[in-house]
Design a protein that fits this description.
Elements lengths: L7 H28 L4 H9 L18 H14 L1 H7 L1 H12 L2 H7 L2 H4 L4 E4 L15 E5 L2 E12 L6 E7 L9 E7 L5 E6 L10 E12 L3 E2 L5 H37 L1 E2 L2 E2 L4 H29 L5 H26 L10 H11 L6 H14 L1
Parallel strand pairs: 1-4
Antiparallel strand pairs: 2-3, 3-7, 4-5, 5-8, 6-7, 9-10
The site of acetoacetyl-coenzyme A has 27 residues, from strand 3, helix 8 and helix 12.
Length: 380
């Protein structure tokens, strides 16, 4: 892999995503954040440019971009707004279980429509009692003839209110713990599926987060992904795919904060000189630049391993933990450089700090990533 230059195609994708973020996302990011507004208009334009179906294989009508291509694009989009980008790329996480465990027929039925028309899918793993402990899922799936009866409550579901299709993890045998979990595709239109409470979040407020309720939902057996009992591994593999994506968001939001802080430090005059003249500011900015570069390299490696068809569990967690912790530090230091103004909503950096916080929590907290890393380096 040694070679740090992007291909011409990757530079073109990066350029397109950068322009989209600057022209379509940034100008609306603050308004949509304050109003907690789902940016349907932005998604329509993004879908038209292929920015929402890049991950879908060509045989399912998508662009068939590599994981690395997607991370390059996502850094740019998240530079525009991390909340909008979380919702914009959520189909990738939700449909990966179908791509990794589904039959050709299931891929055609459950993935291809997302390349044809703008619509949303959600990944329904988390429950009120099963967050970090994903194996502790209480939602049940009981086999009845040629269908399964699903009952349970999923929470913190990205795009939950807007999705037309859910990938749901449920227990087909609670006595087996994580080995009893199974994965299902659940169309929103099935009787018994409903959307519950919509969350009022600290950051990433343009992204929709809601409860999804399942009450005696009769799901056809042909919607089971893989075999009964394979659900936990399918979820873990999907997260291995998705975590470099979150790392790319983190690099994007950190870069946005760094650029704004550097520019402000050159303009803000105190004691008769721009604050950028102080070594205290130099050191903050130098650390930001160095760590953003390190986070980007870890992100690219996590994605590249996937493209090589190799297991990336450890590197995916390296990237996710390092980049999201870095994004929190950089956005916090950017607020510090802006001083009192940085704390005010009139200035852009407080939003970046609020948005960054979620990166350390969703798709596995920073602590869970360290658990994964420790297991990978000590026991495998
Ligand atoms: N690939 C393949 N198999 C894997 C795997 C991987 N990456 N990770 C684990 N497994 C397998 C193990 O080999 C083991 O297999 P056997 O049963 O055959 O031995 C099995 O899965 C259980 O593994 P562990 O013993 O490591 O499981 P654990 O119970 O200790 O938990 C965990 C592991 C990493 C903590 C896991 O529970 C986890 O990732 N938790 C965090 C969940 C998470 O990220 N939730 C986020 C929800 S999605 C979201 O946030 C999106 C949104 O919409 C907001």
């Amino acid at each position: 892999m040694i070679g740090f230059e992007l291909t011409q195609e990757q530079v073109a994708l990066q350029d397109m995503a950068r322009k989209f973020a600057a022209n379509e996302i940034r100008p609306k990011a603050v308004e949509y954040d304050h109003a907690s507004k789902f940016p349907e208009d932005i998604f329509e334009k993004a879908f038209g440019l292929g920015l929402m179906s890049g991950f879908i294989p060509e045989e399912c009508g998508g662009l068939g971009l590599s994981a690395l291509d997607s991370c390059i694009i996502e850094e740019e989009l998240a530079w525009g707004c991390t909340g909008i980008t979380s919702s914009m790329t959520c189909n990738g996480l939700a449909l990966t279980p179908v791509l990794v465990a589904g039959t050709d027929e299931q891929k055609k039925k459950f993935v291809a429509p997302f390349a044809e028309k703008l619509q949303y899918a959600s990944f329904c793993l988390t429950e009120p009692g099963a967050g970090s402990d994903a194996g502790g899922i209480a939602t049940t799936a009981k086999k009845e003839g040629d269908s399964y009866l699903l009952n349970g409550r999923k929470c913190f579901i990205t795009n939950g209110s807007h999705a037309s299709q859910y990938t749901v993890f449920a227990s087909t045998d609670r006595s087996k713990g994580h080995k009893g979990l199974s994965a299902f595709v659940v169309p929103r239109s099935l009787p018994g599926v409903s959307v519950g409470k919509k969350e009022d979040k600290m950051g990433q407020r343009a992204s929709d987060t809601a409860d999804v309720l399942l009450e005696d939902v009769k799901v056809p057996a042909e919607n089971l992904l893989g075999k009964e009992g394979e659900g936990f591994k399918i979820a873990m593999i999907a997260l291995d795919y998705a975590r470099p994506t979150v790392a790319a968001f983190a690099v994007g939001v950190a870069r946005a904060a760094f650029e704004l802080a550097m520019q402000y430090s050159k303009e803000r005059v105190q004691f008769g000189v721009p604050i950028a003249m102080n070594q205290a500011i130099h050191f903050l900015l130098a650390d930001m630049a160095m760590e953003i570069e390190a986070a980007r390299l870890l992100t690219y490696k996590g994605a590249w391993l996937l493209d090589m068809g190799k297991r990336n569990t450890k590197e995916s967690s390296f990237a996710k933990a390092f980049a999201s912790d870095l994004a929190m530090r950089v956005t916090t230091d950017a607020v510090q450089i802006f001083g009192g103004y940085g704390y005010m909503r009139d200035y852009p950096v407080e939003k970046l700090m609020r948005d960054a916080k979620l990166l350390q929590i969703y798709e596995g907290t920073s602590q869970i990533q360290r658990m994964v890393i420790a297991k990978e380096i000590m026991m495998r």
